Amino acid sequence: MVGRRRGSRANSGPHQPQQQRSGGPRKTLREPALFAKKTGYESEVPHEKMTIAQAKRGTPAIRPVRVYADGIFDLFHSGHARALMQAKNLFPNTHLIVGVCSDELTHKYKGYTVMTESERYEALIHCRYVDEVVRDAPWTLSPDFLKKHKIDFVAHDDIPYTSAGSEDVYKHIKEAGMFVATQRTDGISTSDLITRIVRDYDLYVRRNLQRGYTARDLNVSFIREKKIRLQNQVDRMKETVKTVEEKSKHFVFKVEEKSHDLIQKWEEKSREFIGNFLELFGPDGAWHVIQEQSGRMLQALSPYASPVASPRGSPSSSPTRGRSPSPPSSPTSPSSRSPRSPHSSPTSPSSCKGTYAHPLTSLSSTSEGDDE
């Protein structure tokens, strides 16, 4: 602690005024508060006693109002900081002195602390509202102590503080008119913080084991350490299973969503295909309309066709068309006569005329074949 104090002075430099290095007001909030001298406060300015009314008016202007606030300040928290803020803002020009009790006095009159006295001193000098810190402060304020540090007023909450065989350790301060009350912050205190830790002891033991502390550091037995580590593994496994379940649920949800979309698209395409099929091949479809139109056309052209069909192999045109009749041959000419085959049929112009087929008849027969 002494080394820390010397380091702060070394950083301040020898060119700074002696008043600041010996417990005077800080120039900036970037510097930590200073520790009070063991010999007390020394100043060339005469220190005259003042009333609260005078201090509130801001007089005297030649020196600040020296306000003292003491405490244990174990596990320094926002409740402590707010109390010091109120003490700092009691008067327009305030020099706040904070007394911190030692471990010996605290263990004797209040109980065991979490932080050591050196840690508590360090916590106070880095509070922005504190101008000066008194180490190893007394449990009960004596007139000699008040005179030594030139204390004008003492700030504390007005609840009677019963300790060291006294109903209120600030009773004589109140009777002297030097007491100024501050308000406590509800919901936060050192006892509350310790209660939270004790209540969730197993949780914090497991937490510190995970962070690398040993069972000896945490004062737990070997069996308890193994039990806690096993429980940590089980919890990690549960967390892994939970994560996998969440991912699988998300995957199943996406698959269901995709399958629903596919089924919906398939149904839409199926309805579209069936509609197109019925539109083309249904009772009122385009295919039946074409067949009906072709049937009516064939019926309209059928009267022009000959009822006798042309035999296979018959000439496609009339023998009498396109050529003039040859002159009749002489009956006496033997060469003009050809022997007639017993199976040959006589071909005469009249018979050729009887076998002529109209072209529309061929078209009709072709259309009927296509229909079949």
UniProtKB/TrEMBL annotation:
Under Enzyme Commission nomenclature, its number is: 2.7.7.15
The Polar residues compositionally biased stretches are: 9-22, 361-372
Which intervals of the chain form a coiled coil?
Answer: 220-247
What segments bear the compositional bias annotation Low complexity?
310-324, 332-351
* GO molecular function list: choline-phosphate cytidylyltransferase activity; phosphatidylcholine binding
Q: Which Gene3D superfamilies match?
A: HUPs
Kindly give the PANTHER family that the UniProt entry links to this protein.
CHOLINE-PHOSPHATE CYTIDYLYLTRANSFERASE (PTHR10739:SF27), CYTIDYLYLTRANSFERASE (PTHR10739)
Listed name of the protein: choline-phosphate cytidylyltransferase
